[in-house]
Amino acid sequence: MAAIEMKNIVKQYGDGFPAVNDVSLDIADGEFMILVGPSGCGKSTLLRMIVGLEDITSGDMLIGGKRVNDLAPRDRNLSMVFQNYALYPHMTVYENIAFPLRLSKTPDDEVRRRVTEASDVLELKDHLERKPANLSGGQRQRVAMGRAIVRQAEAFLFDEPLSNLDAKLRGQMRTEISRLQRRLGITTVYVTHDQTEAMTLGDRVCVLRKGKIQQVASPRELYEQPVNLFVAGFIGSPPMNFLPAVPKGNRLETPFGDIEIDPARAGKLAGHDLLMVGIRPESFEDATLVEESKRHLGSTFRARVDVTEWLGDSQFAYIPYEAPEAITTQLRDLSRELDAEDLRTQAIVSIDSTSRMREGREAEFWLDSRKVHVFDPETGENLT
Ligand code: ATP
Where is the ABC transporter domain positioned along the sequence (predicted)? Predict the structure, then answer.
């Protein structure tokens, strides 16, 4: 097992915009690190540079403290699981898993021992004589993982390994990968564009945008303290609501009404005429259900509910609002970049399933002021 260190890594294809642009990232020994971001952000390129499938334009890549920039992939002792599994169709499951050991000329009884161990862990014991064509997508995925774990590799690298599976299987495999990684305690780098995978699998998540790191943090920190609009919009489902706001002392005037904020936080907003507030759907509550003792911690406002969606354990209410052009243009661009629906002329509010609010009627909402994020609409930076 080994730590992976990246120092000022750049990847330049031709003379265009760098695909990876000055990335420095330390992945600790045994850590599960997720690389996430929208299509084209450079996450696969970064992974391929760790494995050695892509040359590094500049910067240093260290594995286990050793510089590997000029080391061939086979000499890096890493195990990679690809999206399409890359199984050999003419070989049995047993031989597919054994393949890396055959390459390294491991003695037969050692091969048998390791393949048996891996197939036990992955529950493939009953399928060892089958060919990949006769396996389900999930089983093929496990064979690919088996092949990765029979070798005593320094680290596992995954490139969107679940994206070809249906939603149910994806959920199952996610749990399996997570369990396996904890059990083996092996350094893991996992590329995905799926934020559920990013939030549930990793110890830490590295969010990339246009080849640059935006934030490296635990899933919880990304959710609670996103450093900018991009991370805030990328993490969370349904996504964070962004509303225009004008600061007035300790208040922020928004299309929904005024939000009182802590004077210390308000102090950081001096000099801004127009701000963007970010509020997660789940930071709202139906005001009629909020305990009296907690009301003073937030702001209450009235709004007309356009549509409601009942989900069993909660419900969504959609609230239309008007925003100035400057804000909507920026949000439209951000939505496009995040490949998210352009829902920025309405807010989504997640409330308790027992709430009695109705479509087409006014309702009273309560908002926990401590959970309001404030961004600079020009730079996108989180100001508080
Ligand atoms: P996706 O999720 O779509 O796979 P990604 O975040 O993994 O995207 P990369 O595949 O790393 O992104 O690509 C990053 C950028 O580098 C993109 O703009 C891509 O077009 C470009 N790129 C990738 N491979 C090459 C190549 N071989 N030649 C030229 N440009 C490339």
Answer: 4-235
